[in-house]
Amino acid sequence: MYEAVQAELFLIPLDRDRVWYRYHHMFGRLLYNRLTRQYAEIVPELHRRASEWFRINGYTVEAVEHAVAAVDFNTACELIVQEASELLRNEMHMLLRWFGQFPENLLIHNLAVLYAWSLATFDRLEEAEDVLDRAEPYLDTGETELQSLNDEDILGYFAAMRCMICLGRNETEKAVVYDEEIMRRLGGVGNILAAKC
């Protein structure tokens, strides 16, 4: 490896101290293609191990990427839920890309609010509303990403999403009704209309 670094063959430094490197993307793709052709059966396990390493070392995006590549959607789901606020702030495009690969039942049962929020952020309001409509019957079962919260909080988050959708459609009167529900259920924590003013 040292010789390859010295000769700067196929490697790109990621930091000033030259501790972290990555392969040139074309060389990395070549190696990955060879791996998947010759050792396809171990590729998911390698992705699972990489996901775990990235999780332990605090690299959530990379951990989710490898979990999704391993088709380990339960782990990817847990990681997304644990880091939801950070991902919603900085990785909205990634979230939508990941969600596009998830099985439908996980999206509806475990990621409904996050999925709807991501869709609404990109003005895909009808799709966001459809996700909420399909997920609401499961609220009473505790089969949602917000199962650690109480029922009032869960319903408050759903109301917050519906309020956002109404605001996106300029349906102010409906938004006010949902905003009142948010105030009642979340005690003002999620007062969307106040935040919009």
Highlighted features:
single chain, 197 residues, mainly alpha, 3% strand, elongated
Report on this structure.
The chain has 197 residues and is mainly alpha-helical. It has a domain of 81 residues. 68% of the residues lie in helices and 3% in strands. It contains 13 helices and 2 strands. Helix 9 runs parallel beside helix 11. The chain is elongated and about 65 Å long. The N and C termini lie far apart (57 Å).
- Element order, helices and strands? HEEHHHHHHHHHHHH
Q: What percent of residues are in strands? A: under 5%
Largest sheet: 2 strands, antiparallel
> What would you report as the Rg, rounded to the nearest angstrom?
21 Å
Number of strands: 2
Task: Give the % helix.
Answer: 55-70%
Q: Mean pLDDT across all residues, rounded?
A: 83
Enumerate how many helices there are, as a single number: 13
Shape, principal axes of CA atoms: elongated
Biggest sheet: strands side by side, in what order? 1-2
- Supply the helix-strand structural class: mainly alpha
User: Could you give the distance between the termini?
Assistant: 57 Å
Q: pLDDT below 50 for ≥5 consecutive residues: which ranges?
A: 190-197
